[in-house]
Amino acid sequence: MNLPDSVRSYLDRQRFPYILIPYPANEALEQVGEKLDIPTRRIVRAVLLQDANGLLMAILPYSHILDFSLLCQLRELEPEPLYGNEALQFFQGRGCKGDSRPPLPAAFGLPALVDSSLPGEGELYFESGSGDSLIRMASRDFGSLLDQARWGQFSIPAEDLDFLTNQQTLTPQNLTSLTNRYTPTPARAGLESITELPAVPKTVQELLALQADPARSIQEVLRLAEQDASRAAQLVYWARAPLHGFNGAVDSLATAVERVLGPEKALALLIGSSMAQTFRMPVGGPVGLQAVWQHSIYCATLVGELVKLLPEPLGVNPGLAYLSGLLHDFGYLVLAQVLPARFYLLNRFLTVNRQVPINDAERHVMGVDHEHIGAWLMQSWNLPEEVYSAVRWHHGEDSTHPHAAYSNLVLIANRLLHYVGLGEEHNNRLPALAMFTLGLTREQALTAVGQVHASMAELENLCAVLPLPEES
Fold first, then answer.
1. How far is CA 8 from the centre of its chain?
2. Beta bridge partners of 19
3. Is the overall model pTM greater than 0.90, yes or no?
């Protein structure tokens, strides 16, 4: 619970009493609040913004989302959020640990806007910068720290999303006006513009046909892999990762496919990277190109480790399970291409409203979930039913469809990835029914995470060398 020097020295100078409350470093702030019985309206959060005058900090309750129309009126300029990595770099460059963002603008030399919905009585709680503790302070004292800031109303309760995402109110006619209000710039695309999906490329057709052929040979896989030198090099690079436990030298594509990866995993990587090349999407942001690819690679790898622990009677195909993990979030690539303006807004909404569950944000801004669109893509491109099911149901905890093992594996992997900083921020609880039906124990699941954690350097390198769609 060591506070950053910038935070500690600032608070010492202000001489207001405060108490440090510890919490596990890998727990989301929302879960910490639940365990400590702290109402989210009493948890303060900071959002970094920038406009023509530079950086500024918006301060509001954890329970609220930004209203950009009101924010622009207060500032008289149109602020834009800093993307996750930029905001992280700002705070970490000033000694903060993990993703902790103390709402103390004066400590960092920033001007501030403070939402008037912050409680004026009682106590408030906020991140200390240590990554494993909250600061508890009297509301009046915290308000005194912000006496140089500009106060006003620029947020609404996040619970209002229940109304905004209601199927009766979320019509094409009013979706644009709602989106304009709670996102930085106007959206022009609507759900009605999704009339068709991109055609499946010839390379992907060939790979999928080979993947579906039980009589395929290693030579056929090698032939397709050799058609693209960069992808062939990636397979060799990936095969060299210690995660595979191969002790010999991987000095050729044939060795990588035949002796290390196997044809199924090699095909999965080729299919995933080839499919991604079909789409254009922004690089940055919580659901931008880099984040989606990184999460996909980690998820597929963890699914692969979990499959090794499954009882044989389940009959899960390791290659299809790996492919399911790799493609489960490809709905984002579709949304980025067919609704680019609205996807741009979703990225920014998630950047400044990290406390809102991503599915709620998608329904609010896009009017559709990425798993629905992703499943549509899988069906349209004739991917295996196992992969379709995983993409469609990977957020469902009570899946009982014929291929539920695949969606359950992806669901569990997504929850477990929280332990390496890439999972569902709002829910890292392992789904009991999915764990039971797969015959997995918590200890086994954590062992699989440990394997992935030990290979993070290789996984990061793989994320960097895989071919990615061009930025739109």
1. 31
2. 136
3. no
